[in-house]
Design a protein that fits this description.
The chain is α/β, with parallel strands linked by helices. It folds into four domains: about 160 residues, 3-Layer(aba) Sandwich (Molybdenum Cofactor Biosythetic Enzyme, Chain A), CATH 3.40.980.10; about 50 residues, Molybdopterin biosynthesis moea protein, domain 2 (Alpha-Beta Complex), CATH 3.90.105; about 80 residues, Molybdopterin biosynthesis moea protein, domain 3 (Molybdopterin biosynthesis moeA protein, domain 3), CATH 2.170.190; about 70 residues, MoeA, C-terminal, domain IV (Beta-clip). Helix content is about 15%, strand content about 30%. It contains six helices and 27 strands. Strands 8-5-7-6-10-9 form a six-stranded mixed beta sheet, with no helix packed on it. Strand 9 and strand 10 form a beta hairpin. The longest helix is centred in the last third of the chain and has 19 residues.
Amino acid sequence: MGVPESKWPMLSVEEARALVMGLVTPLAAADLTLADLLGRVLAEDIVATQDMPPFAASTVDGFALVVADMNPRRRLIGEQTAGQMHNLTVTPGTVARITTGAPVPQGADAVVMVEHTEERDGHVIVHEMDLRPGANIRPIGQDIATGDLVLKQGLVLGPAEIGVVATLGRATARVIPPPTVGVLSTGDELVEPGAPPGRGQIRDSNRYALMAAVRQAGGVPLNLGIARDEPGDLERRVRQGLTEADVLVTSGGVSMGHLDLVKPLLERLGTIHFGRLRMKPGKPLTFATVGDKPVFALPGNPVSSLVSFDLFVRPVLRRLQGYVDVDRPMWRVRLLHDVRHDPDRAEYQRAFARREGGEWVAATTGFQGSSRLMSMVGANALIVLPVGVGNVSAGEIVDAVLLDAANGY
Protein backbone atom coordinates (compact mmCIF):
# COMPACT_ATOMS: atom_id res chain seq x y z
CA MET A 1 0.00 0.00 0.00
CA GLY A 2 1.52 3.32 -1.07
CA VAL A 3 1.87 6.47 0.96
CA PRO A 4 -1.30 8.61 0.63
CA GLU A 5 -0.77 11.74 -1.40
CA SER A 6 -2.02 15.09 -0.13
CA LYS A 7 -4.67 16.82 -2.20
CA TRP A 8 -3.33 20.22 -1.12
CA PRO A 9 -0.93 21.93 -3.51
CA MET A 10 2.40 23.05 -2.03
CA LEU A 11 2.45 26.85 -1.80
CA SER A 12 5.52 28.98 -1.29
CA VAL A 13 5.77 31.03 1.89
CA GLU A 14 5.43 34.21 -0.15
CA GLU A 15 2.27 33.01 -1.94
CA ALA A 16 0.69 31.88 1.32
CA ARG A 17 1.53 35.08 3.16
CA ALA A 18 0.07 37.24 0.40
CA LEU A 19 -3.12 35.14 0.43
CA VAL A 20 -3.51 35.40 4.22
CA MET A 21 -2.82 39.13 4.46
CA GLY A 22 -5.20 39.84 1.60
CA LEU A 23 -8.06 38.43 3.68
CA VAL A 24 -7.42 40.35 6.90
CA THR A 25 -8.54 43.86 7.82
CA PRO A 26 -8.37 45.68 11.19
CA LEU A 27 -11.03 45.06 13.80
CA ALA A 28 -13.79 47.61 14.36
CA ALA A 29 -12.76 50.49 16.63
CA ALA A 30 -13.92 50.64 20.23
CA ASP A 31 -13.69 53.04 23.17
CA LEU A 32 -11.19 51.73 25.73
CA THR A 33 -10.27 53.17 29.11
CA LEU A 34 -6.91 54.79 29.85
CA ALA A 35 -5.67 51.63 31.58
CA ASP A 36 -6.22 49.61 28.38
CA LEU A 37 -4.70 51.98 25.80
CA LEU A 38 -1.03 50.94 25.91
CA GLY A 39 0.10 49.67 22.51
CA ARG A 40 -3.27 50.29 20.90
CA VAL A 41 -3.62 52.08 17.54
CA LEU A 42 -5.62 55.29 17.72
CA ALA A 43 -8.77 55.23 15.57
CA GLU A 44 -9.61 58.94 15.85
CA ASP A 45 -7.92 62.32 15.71
CA ILE A 46 -7.74 63.87 19.17
CA VAL A 47 -8.17 67.64 19.13
CA ALA A 48 -7.63 69.80 22.22
CA THR A 49 -10.81 71.30 23.62
CA GLN A 50 -8.95 73.40 26.20
CA ASP A 51 -5.66 75.18 26.72
CA MET A 52 -2.89 73.46 28.67
CA PRO A 53 -2.00 74.82 31.07
CA PRO A 54 -5.42 76.42 31.57
CA PHE A 55 -3.87 79.16 33.73
CA ALA A 56 -0.51 80.90 33.94
CA ALA A 57 1.58 78.75 36.30
CA SER A 58 4.86 79.10 38.12
CA THR A 59 7.66 76.79 36.95
CA VAL A 60 9.65 77.20 40.20
CA ASP A 61 9.26 77.65 43.92
CA GLY A 62 9.70 81.33 44.69
CA PHE A 63 7.86 84.64 44.90
CA ALA A 64 5.45 86.23 42.41
CA LEU A 65 6.19 89.91 41.82
CA VAL A 66 5.92 92.91 39.52
CA VAL A 67 9.05 93.23 37.35
CA ALA A 68 8.83 97.04 36.99
CA ASP A 69 9.11 97.47 40.77
CA MET A 70 12.79 98.26 41.40
CA ASN A 71 12.57 98.16 45.21
CA PRO A 72 14.43 95.02 46.40
CA ARG A 73 12.52 94.96 49.73
CA ARG A 74 8.86 93.99 49.33
CA ARG A 75 6.08 93.03 51.71
CA LEU A 76 4.93 89.37 51.73
CA ILE A 77 1.13 89.35 51.33
CA GLY A 78 0.43 85.61 51.35
CA GLU A 79 1.06 82.27 49.69
CA GLN A 80 -0.26 80.73 46.47
CA THR A 81 -0.01 76.92 46.39
CA ALA A 82 -0.68 74.39 43.63
CA GLY A 83 -4.21 73.10 43.44
CA GLN A 84 -5.78 76.23 45.01
CA MET A 85 -6.67 79.73 43.86
CA HIS A 86 -6.25 82.27 46.67
CA ASN A 87 -7.60 85.79 46.45
CA LEU A 88 -4.23 87.52 46.17
CA THR A 89 -3.30 90.58 44.13
CA VAL A 90 0.38 91.47 43.77
CA THR A 91 1.19 95.18 43.41
CA PRO A 92 4.45 97.15 43.39
CA GLY A 93 6.08 96.82 46.79
CA THR A 94 4.56 93.38 47.47
CA VAL A 95 5.27 89.71 46.67
CA ALA A 96 3.38 86.42 47.14
CA ARG A 97 5.04 83.13 47.96
CA ILE A 98 4.30 80.60 45.19
CA THR A 99 4.97 76.89 44.65
CA THR A 100 5.82 75.08 41.43
CA GLY A 101 2.71 74.56 39.32
CA ALA A 102 0.60 77.05 41.24
CA PRO A 103 -1.44 79.70 39.41
CA VAL A 104 0.25 83.08 39.24
CA PRO A 105 -1.63 85.64 41.39
CA GLN A 106 -3.37 88.58 39.79
CA GLY A 107 -1.04 91.53 39.12
CA ALA A 108 2.22 89.52 39.10
CA ASP A 109 4.15 89.23 35.83
CA ALA A 110 7.20 87.16 36.92
CA VAL A 111 8.43 84.75 39.58
CA VAL A 112 11.81 85.02 41.27
CA MET A 113 13.37 81.75 42.44
CA VAL A 114 13.48 81.31 46.22
CA GLU A 115 17.26 80.80 45.99
CA HIS A 116 17.59 84.43 44.85
CA THR A 117 15.72 85.91 47.77
CA GLU A 118 15.96 86.43 51.52
CA GLU A 119 13.02 86.58 53.92
CA ARG A 120 13.04 89.00 56.90
CA ASP A 121 10.33 90.34 59.23
CA GLY A 122 7.41 89.68 56.89
CA HIS A 123 9.30 91.06 53.92
CA VAL A 124 11.28 89.52 51.05
CA ILE A 125 14.60 90.89 49.83
CA VAL A 126 14.93 90.23 46.08
CA HIS A 127 18.56 89.73 45.03
CA GLU A 128 17.80 89.15 41.33
CA MET A 129 16.61 92.44 39.86
CA ASP A 130 17.11 91.78 36.11
CA LEU A 131 14.01 89.63 35.65
CA ARG A 132 11.91 90.09 32.52
CA PRO A 133 8.11 89.85 32.34
CA GLY A 134 7.11 86.19 32.04
CA ALA A 135 10.21 84.89 33.83
CA ASN A 136 9.59 81.45 35.39
CA ILE A 137 5.96 81.50 34.26
CA ARG A 138 4.40 78.93 31.97
CA PRO A 139 1.73 80.87 30.02
CA ILE A 140 -1.78 79.68 29.23
CA GLY A 141 -1.77 77.25 26.30
CA GLN A 142 2.03 76.94 26.12
CA ASP A 143 1.87 73.14 25.98
CA ILE A 144 -1.40 72.68 24.11
CA ALA A 145 -3.72 75.28 22.63
CA THR A 146 -7.44 74.84 22.10
CA GLY A 147 -8.02 73.45 18.60
CA ASP A 148 -4.59 71.82 18.28
CA LEU A 149 -4.50 68.39 16.58
CA VAL A 150 -2.72 66.67 19.45
CA LEU A 151 -2.76 62.97 18.50
CA LYS A 152 -3.34 61.75 14.94
CA GLN A 153 -5.34 58.71 13.91
CA GLY A 154 -3.08 55.69 13.33
CA LEU A 155 -0.65 56.60 16.12
CA VAL A 156 0.44 53.77 18.40
CA LEU A 157 -0.24 54.88 21.96
CA GLY A 158 2.63 54.76 24.44
CA PRO A 159 2.94 56.14 27.99
CA ALA A 160 3.39 59.77 26.87
CA GLU A 161 0.44 59.66 24.47
CA ILE A 162 -1.80 58.13 27.15
CA GLY A 163 -0.69 60.91 29.49
CA VAL A 164 -1.78 63.48 26.91
CA VAL A 165 -5.20 61.84 26.60
CA ALA A 166 -5.60 62.05 30.37
CA THR A 167 -4.34 65.65 30.43
CA LEU A 168 -7.12 66.62 28.04
CA GLY A 169 -9.69 65.31 30.49
CA ARG A 170 -10.60 62.15 28.64
CA ALA A 171 -11.13 58.81 30.41
CA THR A 172 -11.32 56.85 27.13
CA ALA A 173 -10.05 56.95 23.56
CA ARG A 174 -11.29 55.28 20.38
CA VAL A 175 -8.77 52.65 19.33
CA ILE A 176 -8.47 49.30 17.54
CA PRO A 177 -9.04 46.75 20.33
CA PRO A 178 -6.89 43.65 20.86
CA PRO A 179 -8.08 40.51 19.08
CA THR A 180 -9.22 37.56 21.15
CA VAL A 181 -7.42 34.41 19.98
CA GLY A 182 -8.74 30.95 20.78
CA VAL A 183 -5.89 28.49 21.32
CA LEU A 184 -6.62 24.76 21.11
CA SER A 185 -4.37 21.72 21.33
CA THR A 186 -5.41 18.40 19.83
CA GLY A 187 -4.49 14.79 20.49
CA ASP A 188 -5.09 11.90 22.91
CA GLU A 189 -1.38 11.88 23.67
CA LEU A 190 -1.56 15.23 25.48
CA VAL A 191 -2.08 15.91 29.17
CA GLU A 192 -2.02 19.16 31.15
CA PRO A 193 1.46 20.24 32.31
CA GLY A 194 0.62 19.55 35.96
CA ALA A 195 -0.70 16.03 35.31
CA PRO A 196 1.44 12.85 35.23
CA PRO A 197 1.61 11.51 31.65
CA GLY A 198 0.34 8.01 31.06
CA ARG A 199 2.10 5.49 28.85
CA GLY A 200 2.68 7.06 25.44
CA GLN A 201 1.56 10.51 26.58
CA ILE A 202 3.35 13.87 26.81
CA ARG A 203 2.59 17.17 28.49
CA ASP A 204 0.96 19.88 26.37
CA SER A 205 3.51 22.65 25.85
CA ASN A 206 2.14 24.11 22.62
CA ARG A 207 -0.98 25.70 24.06
CA TYR A 208 0.91 27.62 26.73
CA ALA A 209 3.70 28.66 24.37
CA LEU A 210 1.14 29.86 21.82
CA MET A 211 -0.94 31.74 24.40
CA ALA A 212 2.24 33.53 25.48
CA ALA A 213 3.00 34.34 21.84
CA VAL A 214 -0.54 35.73 21.45
CA ARG A 215 0.00 38.03 24.44
CA GLN A 216 3.39 39.11 23.09
CA ALA A 217 1.71 40.02 19.79
CA GLY A 218 -0.87 42.16 21.60
CA GLY A 219 -3.76 39.70 21.55
CA VAL A 220 -5.88 38.21 24.32
CA PRO A 221 -5.63 34.40 24.47
CA LEU A 222 -8.66 32.22 25.08
CA ASN A 223 -7.69 28.80 26.47
CA LEU A 224 -9.78 26.15 24.68
CA GLY A 225 -8.05 23.19 26.31
CA ILE A 226 -7.18 19.87 24.66
CA ALA A 227 -9.45 18.29 22.06
CA ARG A 228 -9.37 14.52 22.03
CA ASP A 229 -9.03 12.49 18.83
CA GLU A 230 -12.78 12.29 18.55
CA PRO A 231 -14.72 14.35 15.97
CA GLY A 232 -17.46 15.50 18.36
CA ASP A 233 -15.07 16.87 21.00
CA LEU A 234 -12.93 18.61 18.37
CA GLU A 235 -15.94 20.22 16.69
CA ARG A 236 -17.40 21.43 19.99
CA ARG A 237 -14.16 23.17 20.97
CA VAL A 238 -13.58 24.60 17.50
CA ARG A 239 -17.10 26.02 17.42
CA GLN A 240 -16.54 27.55 20.86
CA GLY A 241 -13.40 29.27 19.56
CA LEU A 242 -15.17 30.51 16.46
CA THR A 243 -17.99 31.94 18.60
CA GLU A 244 -15.89 33.58 21.32
CA ALA A 245 -12.70 34.61 19.51
CA ASP A 246 -11.66 36.75 16.56
CA VAL A 247 -9.02 34.22 15.46
CA LEU A 248 -8.70 30.49 16.09
CA VAL A 249 -5.31 28.78 16.42
CA THR A 250 -5.04 25.01 16.77
CA SER A 251 -1.98 22.79 17.01
CA GLY A 252 -1.71 19.17 15.89
CA GLY A 253 -3.96 17.00 13.78
CA VAL A 254 -3.07 18.48 10.38
CA SER A 255 -0.98 15.70 8.81
CA MET A 256 -2.15 12.70 6.77
CA GLY A 257 -3.06 10.17 9.49
CA HIS A 258 -6.58 8.83 10.03
CA LEU A 259 -6.71 10.69 13.36
CA ASP A 260 -5.68 14.01 11.82
CA LEU A 261 -9.18 15.45 12.05
CA VAL A 262 -8.65 19.20 11.85
CA LYS A 263 -8.48 19.65 8.06
CA PRO A 264 -11.68 17.65 7.36
CA LEU A 265 -13.55 19.63 10.02
CA LEU A 266 -12.39 23.00 8.69
CA GLU A 267 -13.24 21.92 5.16
CA ARG A 268 -16.77 21.16 6.31
CA LEU A 269 -17.20 24.35 8.38
CA GLY A 270 -15.57 26.86 6.05
CA THR A 271 -12.95 27.29 3.32
CA ILE A 272 -9.40 25.96 3.45
CA HIS A 273 -7.14 28.32 1.50
CA PHE A 274 -4.00 26.21 1.77
CA GLY A 275 -2.98 23.00 3.51
CA ARG A 276 0.73 22.62 2.76
CA LEU A 277 3.69 24.97 2.45
CA ARG A 278 7.12 24.66 0.90
CA MET A 279 8.55 25.47 4.32
CA LYS A 280 10.62 23.88 7.07
CA PRO A 281 9.54 23.65 9.82
CA GLY A 282 5.80 24.00 9.28
CA LYS A 283 5.04 22.12 6.05
CA PRO A 284 1.48 21.03 7.06
CA LEU A 285 0.43 24.53 8.21
CA THR A 286 -3.20 25.05 7.21
CA PHE A 287 -5.11 28.31 6.85
CA ALA A 288 -8.89 28.51 6.62
CA THR A 289 -11.69 30.99 7.09
CA VAL A 290 -15.02 30.17 8.68
CA GLY A 291 -17.27 33.08 7.89
CA ASP A 292 -15.01 36.07 8.54
CA LYS A 293 -12.90 34.28 11.18
CA PRO A 294 -9.29 33.35 10.31
CA VAL A 295 -8.28 29.87 11.44
CA PHE A 296 -4.67 28.70 11.62
CA ALA A 297 -4.17 24.98 12.08
CA LEU A 298 -0.52 24.70 13.10
CA PRO A 299 1.59 21.55 13.13
CA GLY A 300 1.90 19.68 16.42
CA ASN A 301 5.67 19.70 16.74
CA PRO A 302 6.55 22.52 19.16
CA VAL A 303 9.11 24.28 16.95
CA SER A 304 6.93 23.98 13.85
CA SER A 305 4.05 25.44 15.84
CA LEU A 306 5.98 28.48 17.13
CA VAL A 307 7.81 29.25 13.88
CA SER A 308 4.53 29.00 11.93
CA PHE A 309 2.89 31.31 14.46
CA ASP A 310 5.65 33.90 14.13
CA LEU A 311 5.64 33.94 10.34
CA PHE A 312 1.87 33.81 9.79
CA VAL A 313 -0.29 34.34 12.88
CA ARG A 314 1.66 37.20 14.46
CA PRO A 315 1.43 39.45 11.35
CA VAL A 316 -2.32 38.80 11.18
CA LEU A 317 -2.79 39.74 14.84
CA ARG A 318 -0.89 42.96 14.26
CA ARG A 319 -2.92 43.77 11.14
CA LEU A 320 -6.14 43.16 13.10
CA GLN A 321 -4.90 45.73 15.66
CA GLY A 322 -4.37 48.32 12.95
CA TYR A 323 -0.57 48.28 12.82
CA VAL A 324 1.02 49.31 9.52
CA ASP A 325 4.30 47.49 10.18
CA VAL A 326 3.23 43.91 10.85
CA ASP A 327 6.49 42.03 10.28
CA ARG A 328 9.58 41.68 12.39
CA PRO A 329 12.75 43.37 11.09
CA MET A 330 14.93 41.49 8.60
CA TRP A 331 18.71 41.89 8.62
CA ARG A 332 21.58 40.55 6.59
CA VAL A 333 23.88 38.45 8.77
CA ARG A 334 27.21 36.70 8.25
CA LEU A 335 27.19 33.02 9.22
CA LEU A 336 29.78 31.93 11.76
CA HIS A 337 29.73 28.30 10.61
CA ASP A 338 28.59 26.04 7.77
CA VAL A 339 24.84 25.37 7.56
CA ARG A 340 23.29 22.37 5.82
CA HIS A 341 20.11 22.97 3.82
CA ASP A 342 17.82 20.98 1.54
CA PRO A 343 16.99 23.38 -1.33
CA ASP A 344 13.50 21.91 -1.87
CA ARG A 345 11.96 24.00 0.92
CA ALA A 346 12.52 27.39 2.51
CA GLU A 347 13.99 26.76 5.95
CA TYR A 348 13.94 28.94 9.06
CA GLN A 349 16.77 27.89 11.35
CA ARG A 350 16.82 29.16 14.93
CA ALA A 351 19.89 31.21 15.72
CA PHE A 352 21.73 33.61 17.99
CA ALA A 353 22.49 36.89 16.19
CA ARG A 354 24.63 39.73 17.48
CA ARG A 355 26.50 42.83 16.38
CA GLU A 356 30.21 42.25 15.91
CA GLY A 357 32.65 44.75 14.44
CA GLY A 358 30.00 46.81 12.70
CA GLU A 359 28.06 43.90 11.19
CA TRP A 360 25.52 41.28 12.22
CA VAL A 361 26.77 37.73 12.70
CA ALA A 362 24.78 34.61 13.54
CA ALA A 363 25.20 31.02 14.69
CA THR A 364 22.43 28.43 14.88
CA THR A 365 21.21 26.99 18.17
CA GLY A 366 22.41 23.48 17.28
CA PHE A 367 20.28 20.53 16.19
CA GLN A 368 17.28 21.94 14.33
CA GLY A 369 14.75 19.12 14.78
CA SER A 370 11.16 20.40 14.78
CA SER A 371 10.43 18.58 18.06
CA ARG A 372 13.41 20.15 19.87
CA LEU A 373 11.89 23.16 21.61
CA MET A 374 15.28 23.90 23.18
CA SER A 375 16.41 25.06 19.74
CA MET A 376 14.22 28.13 20.30
CA VAL A 377 15.24 28.86 23.89
CA GLY A 378 17.25 32.09 23.85
CA ALA A 379 17.13 32.31 20.05
CA ASN A 380 16.71 35.86 18.81
CA ALA A 381 16.69 35.21 15.06
CA LEU A 382 15.52 32.90 12.30
CA ILE A 383 18.09 32.37 9.57
CA VAL A 384 16.22 32.30 6.24
CA LEU A 385 17.44 29.73 3.71
CA PRO A 386 15.28 30.08 0.57
CA VAL A 387 14.12 27.48 -1.92
CA GLY A 388 16.83 26.68 -4.44
CA VAL A 389 19.73 27.40 -2.08
CA GLY A 390 21.70 24.41 -0.84
CA ASN A 391 24.31 24.21 1.89
CA VAL A 392 25.73 27.57 3.00
CA SER A 393 29.34 28.06 4.07
CA ALA A 394 30.72 29.98 7.02
CA GLY A 395 31.25 33.64 6.13
CA GLU A 396 28.38 33.82 3.64
CA ILE A 397 25.71 36.51 4.07
CA VAL A 398 22.07 35.44 4.50
CA ASP A 399 18.79 37.00 5.61
CA ALA A 400 17.65 36.66 9.23
CA VAL A 401 14.37 37.57 10.86
CA LEU A 402 15.12 39.22 14.21
CA LEU A 403 12.79 37.84 16.87
CA ASP A 404 13.77 39.61 20.06
CA ALA A 405 15.06 43.13 20.49
CA ALA A 406 16.21 42.29 24.03
CA ASN A 407 18.74 39.73 22.82
CA GLY A 408 21.30 40.88 20.29
CA TYR A 409 20.38 44.50 19.52
